[in-house]
Amino acid sequence: MYGRPPEAFGQAWMEGFVSLVRFLASQLRFRSARALTLGAGILVAAVSFTLLTSAAITSRLQVQSTVSHNFRGAYDILVRPADSFAPLEREAGLVRQNYLGGIFGGISLRQYEDVKRIPDVEVAAPIANLGYVAPVQKLPVTIDEVLTRDPVQLYRLRYDWLANNGLSRYEGGSVYVYYTSRHKMVEVEGFPAEELPDGTKAQVCNPRNTMPESSYLACFSERSPQAARLSGLPPGRVGGEADLQTPILLAAIDPEQEARLVGLDRTMVAGRYLRGSDDDAVAPPGGMRLRSVPILASSRLYLDQVLETSVERLEVPPGVDVADRLSSRSAGRFLSRLRGRVVQRQTLSPVPIYERALERFSGPSTDVGSLLAGYWSVSPVTYRSLGTDRLAPVPTSNPDDVWRLGFSGRVKPPGSDDVQYRTVRLHEGSTEVDLDEVVNAPAMRIVGRFDPERLPGFNPLSLVPLETYYPPQVEPADEASRKALEGRPLRPTTNIGGYLAQPPLLLTTIRALDALTDPKAYRSANHAAPVSVIRIRVAGVTGPDRVSRERIRRVAAAVMARTGLAVDVTAGSSPHPLRVDLPAGRDGQPPMQVNEGWVKKGAAIVILAALDRKSVALFFLVLLACACFVANGAFAAVRARRAEIGTLRCLGWSASRVFAVVLGELVVIGLTAGLLGAVLATALVRLLHLRMAAGQTVLVVPVAVWLAVAAGVPPAWRAARIDPLDAVRPPAVGARAGRPVRSVGAMALANLGRVPGRTLLGVTGLVVGVAAFTTLLAINFAFRGSVSGTLLGNLLAVQVRGVDFASALLAIGLGGLSVADVLFLNFRERNAELVTLATTGWGGRELARLGMLEGAGMGLLGSLGGMALGLGAAALLGQTAIGGLALAGAIAGLVGVAVVAVLALVPLRALRTLSAPTVLAEE
Question: Residue 441 and residue 97: Cα distance in Å, rounded?
Fold first, then answer.
């Protein structure tokens, strides 16, 4: 050979290459069925991989779009006192949505100014919760429509607050009404007295008479209607007045910052908006000098409470002189013993009471009655855990003297005797005067009204831990609670120590804080650090991208370094529902279970990180499953051509030439399948509305070629090393002696061990498929575990579910097809054996059972192996709990066996077509 010229050598190489190509073409032509089968497998694998990748990309883009859209609420950072973290928040990153109702001060005005000066702080809006104010209002209730023609009538008006959808009944006192048509009513020492025929005056409404607690007596006469004014009613009207309190939360804001943050200035419905320069104003000299603070009042009152007035007509025993009894010191005992019948019920929402309270503060302040006699601050609710996502609030108690104000007497809002969950603290006002003869405690001066419903609604999927002006509400969680609440949510009540807290409905300015926290005006007021929280919007934040997140991180770090305050990154937060077990109340409310929307901090960041991990795992697992399926088909093709390859080797073909023929055939098949797949993928992408450019669908071609090459190298290498003589006629049974086969099951088990390499080949494909299925399920469980629980995460888990299950089903389906391919090859090589069994008495049922048992055995081996491999891989990821892993493995194993059992029916159908002449002819 060395003596030949280069031209001859090149010509010989070219001739060999041409002959190799011709041989390859003839193989594809005359063995078209095998080529089409293998090409179809590559086509399915390549197109499936491309479409699933495209679907995963589409799903990821949708998730990123959803996260970006819901990433940012009203603000990005919440600054609050360092000691305001609840234990549950430290452990699980959960914040109660209504938790601002338990923070009253802790940040100084100097710290607020330091925060405003930090670079990249676009808006810094403080909220300074001062406390609940509860001005006492007198509400007239008339009963003219129930009066009769009787000369003497007695009525009892019972006032009850119905809260929690009527489940709780809070007593609000009572009024006794005496009405007569016999005599006139005259005024004696400022109180009504009945003028008797002999000229004497019966002091029927004597204030010195002993009356039942929280009640008084009002007296009227048909003959002197003008006397009604002594009871606070218009002339000619009969009834009584109810002393009512509606506690309202008062807070201070920076008007300019609040307008920039949430557009509060665009919610005005009356009067004017607060100005940054508004502070406490002092009345001019002349008379009593009072200071007043500007107030912006809400036009809505978010309370689940109505006032019910029950009018009872009392039954007077015959012969009793009512006027005489009412004039005695025992009038209260006499009235309390009378039986009555309800003749009327009236209901009234607390809104009119709230509006009357605001009217009191709408004009210039000129008397002590308009002063803020005091306000109450409350603590946060504490909880004990009842298990995963389930809590119970811990009740507390408050002393009765917390409701006693020095110059206003006892002011106890309705419901204050019900179960308490917050510690209440009184900040009592002082009516003393300073050196300028100005009363220390200020009054409120209403300058405008705002409607919270006009605020821009932030996305409910990304509600941050505090939406200042919206009331909290919790939904019933079980059937008993839904029935009790009639499907309605639970809302705040006038019980300020109760479970739910009101939002701030009265707003003043930061500049007015000095008057409201002056220790001379209010004892125990937090003058040094009155601000509760500061909400920060960071400049340049556009979404969950790295640059925006870094901007937020740097501002948060700067706030901590300069102020030492606690910082929460609220961007990317999302509601996380928890179940709360509320015990029975003291006033009628039964035990209830409710769902409350807490907030998971940083939920969006966790979602994106979990999505990245899942996308990478999905890509490689689907690619691995497709490659193993093609490799199994290639190995099966080589196995079917074992005798042919042995004959070629006997005729002098070199190992390299055999390798080139086998691999070249696979490459040509892969290239053809890729070209067809590109066209098919383009059509499917458009049909399924997936996000993939038309040019990117051409990637099916290199994917198909790569799969063919990657899957073809091992079988081609194996084919090149086949021993020529052994390959011409491989033994069907080994030389080892086996045990006698006495059943169909034993024969199926023996058949699986006759050619262990081939069994291992089919099992390996299923192992990979089940392992991929198991790992995909485990990753999906981990992804849901990372993001579920929040509203945003639950939505996204649903969005990506379709791609996950499509990928998993593809993996397990390709593994099952590998087993079916091996079973078909096994049955084809054992045609003679199977015909022999048929001619010796085996029926079609026994042969089918044999094939089913072989398929089930391979399916069981592949499923168990795949489960073990998949569980190990998932455990290494460290993202799924043991329970989730076990469930993923069990599901994958069952699906694997089921798929193989179904696909095994395909080769079993070939058993019915076997006949002795056909098999003998092939032999």
Answer: 33
728's tokens? 């011409």
Tell me the C-alpha distance between 455 and 441, whole Å. 32
Nearest-angstrom CA–CA distance, 871 and 772? 10
Bridge pairing between strands 77-80 and 533-538 = antiparallel
For 484-494, the pLDDT digits (tens) are: 999 898 888 88
Q: What is the pLDDT of residue 23?
A: 59
For residue 282 the two structure tokens come to 């002092």
Question: What is the tens place of the pLDDT at every residue in 127-155?
Answer: 999 999 887 778 888 999 999 999 999 99
Q: pTM of the full predicted structure?
A: 0.68
What is the residue type of 470?
Y
Compute the C-alpha angle 170/172/173, nearest 5°.
135
Rounded Cα distance, 895 and 758, in Å: 23
Determine what percent of the chain falls in helix, strand and coil, rounding each to the nearest 5: 50, 20, 30
Cα separation, 560 vs 488, in Å, equals 42
Extract the tokens encoding 653.
């073909």
Task: State the sign of the Cα–Cα–Cα–Cα dihedral 482, 488, 494, 498.
Answer: positive
Distance CA 718, CA 725 (A): 15
Task: Give DSSP secondary structure letters for 758-821.
Answer: HHHHHHHHHHHHHHHHHHHHHHHHHHHHHHTTSHHHHHHHHHHHHHHHHHHHHHHHHHHHHHHH
| Strands ordered across the beta sheet of 215-221 | 215-221, 168-180, 152-163, 305-314, 340-348
Torsion of CA 82, 87, 92, 95, to 10 degrees: -60
